[in-house]
Amino acid sequence: MACGIGANDVANAFGTSVGAKTITLRQACVIAAIFEFAGCVGLGGEVTKTIAGSIARPAAFQAEPEIFMYGMMCALISAGMWLAVATYNCLAVSTTHSIIGAVMGFALVWGGGGAVVWNDRKKEFPYSSGFVPVVCSWFVSPIMSGIASSILFFLNRFIVLRRPNSTTLAIYVFPLLVFITIFVNLFFVISKGASKVAAWPSNKAAWVAACVAGGLFLLSCFPGIPLLRRRVRSDMERAEQKVIDAEAAAAKVPGGRGGGGGRGGGGRAAAAKLDPESGASADGSSDPPEPVPSAAKRMFDSFKKAATHGLNQDIHDHVEKHADVAAMHAAAEVFDPETEQVYKYLQVFSACAVSFAHGANDVANAIGPFAGIWYVYRNWTISSNGEVPIWLLVLGGAGIVLGLALYGYKVMKTLGVGLAKMTPCRGYCAEISTALTISVASVYGMPVSSTQIITGAELGVGLVESLKTGVNYRLLAKDVAVYENGIRSVSEAFYKSLNASNRALNVSFPGVFDASLDAKISGAMSNFKSKFDTKKIGYIDPYGLINDLNASAMTYVNQSVMTVGYNPKTRAVLPVGATDFAATNVEVSPYAVVDLKRK
């Protein structure tokens, strides 16, 4: 599970930086390894409450804690397998929602609707917790980040990037951007990451972040601006020199890249073909044969090649291989490279901060269930506030780093190159909007997905670029389809589980009640098929999907034998009259189960 998080979720922080060519894939893996691991070990404690206590009710398993252990193990295995499949297919999915769905699944199987926290009321905003807010966040969080990134990119483009003296303006705007970047990211780390260690109120976290950001604002004014000016000029001179050297090397030999001994290696390849077996060289001399490597050396080289396979990938070849992505990149507006260079330093810092907080919080997705298993094993009881041993956090951090190094390039390719054109300025706007959205959500305790947020942020930047060519709509539709199919699968699973649980107990419902329930389920299943027939309806209504999910959940909660009750001796459901059946069709709160009329 931790490897899956590293391979799929860490691209949220560094996919835009690598896609913008601010840093290389190998550099991103090294930097992310440092900050993800530091966040996991330093601020990743007390993670079991979020995953276990907020979705599965611990009280439902107190009598048999070994079932809780087994269920958490199944949740880890199923979520880990799903992440492996999604990463292999370059799908950016939410690891948080993956493990939440897995935990909800085993809780439903064991304890029915009462074992799941559906929509518990709270006195403060957002006034609810459990599964329903998670579903709502699927739609709210990407919109929030998309609006923030589009506004930020529009202002940067209007004030700085399109001006004749854009580099000078970017350098003078740099201190203000430093203040915004430091404040947002530090507030994010303190409120969402450090809250696991020191529960500071949001106003205190904001004051601390503002003071630190103000101090760095002054430093970035002087000596920051003169140093930045010299550094940008030096970087541009080095980049220009590399281009000159490459052109000179290609022009040394007639035929350039294609022949002679140029960069293409044509001359050297021809010389090597003279006598590949005997080792004869071009001038007729004979070189001594190279020693044959030992079996251990060959095994080590094979292992090294496999271990570093993910670090040596070029995610930018995705542009050359896909015509739609190449067209999107070609249509993007080109800004002054020297101006873009100013944004590189902001982008790397922002990515580091997001990576640190990601390690502090998303380690819960892997270690939360495992910590619950460990706590039950040691204490034979269930607690949503159990202490997490440091070695568990180290294990989670190591797994995240390993997954990133092995397969992180796949999702980085999707978010950094395939979804929208990324440059340092565009990537910075997307990352800072991601951090801002997560900061606001964390203050109010709203469950959000960093994957969906960065996707929405990139979408906002791309739409400002161009409504027609700024976004890879084909890839976006592919990601949206993942969540639509997920909602449909969960809804259908409720109905199938309801039938399976009722019939497994071999109970007998009263005729009218049974017929009404069967008709309700049959109608709902037919409704699912019609709503996904896009040839007839044209599109899938997301609000309709949410209503269907709510209806299926409420049907399960109110009509399951576990809720209605039955006589174990006669295996007959407790009598419920036909007139009472209508009263059980609750569409709002799961607490309606207590109002069922029983006899």
Distance between the termini: 47 Å
The total strand number stands at 4
- Work out the strand percent: under 5%
| Structural classification | mainly alpha
- How is the largest sheet built, in terms of strand order? 1-2
Please mark out the parts with pLDDT under 50 across 5 or more consecutive residues, or reply none: 256-282, 574-599
**Oligomeric grouping of the chains:** single chain
Major sheet summary line? 2 strands, antiparallel
Q: Round the Cα radius of gyration to an integer and report it.
A: 29 Å
Number of domains: 2
- Tell the overall outline: globular
Total helical segments: 24
Order of helices and strands: HHHHHHEEHHHHHHHHHHHHHHHHHEEH
Task: Give the helix proportion (percent range).
Answer: 55-70%
The average pLDDT is: 74
Describe what this molecule looks like in 3D.
There is one protein chain. The protein is an all-alpha fold and 599 residues long. The chain folds into two domains: 2-236 and 320-471, no CATH class; 481-595, no CATH class. It is built from 24 helices and four strands. The strands form two sheets. The protein has a two-stranded antiparallel ribbon with strand order 1-2. A two-stranded antiparallel sheet has the order 3-4. The protein is globular and about 85 Å long. The chain starts with a helix and ends in an 18-residue tail after the last helix. The model is unreliable at 256-282 and 574-599 (pLDDT under 50).
List its traits.
599 residues, mainly alpha, 2 domains, two-stranded antiparallel ribbon, two-stranded antiparallel sheet, 24 helices, 4 strands, disordered C terminus, phosphate transmembrane transporter activity, Phos_transporter
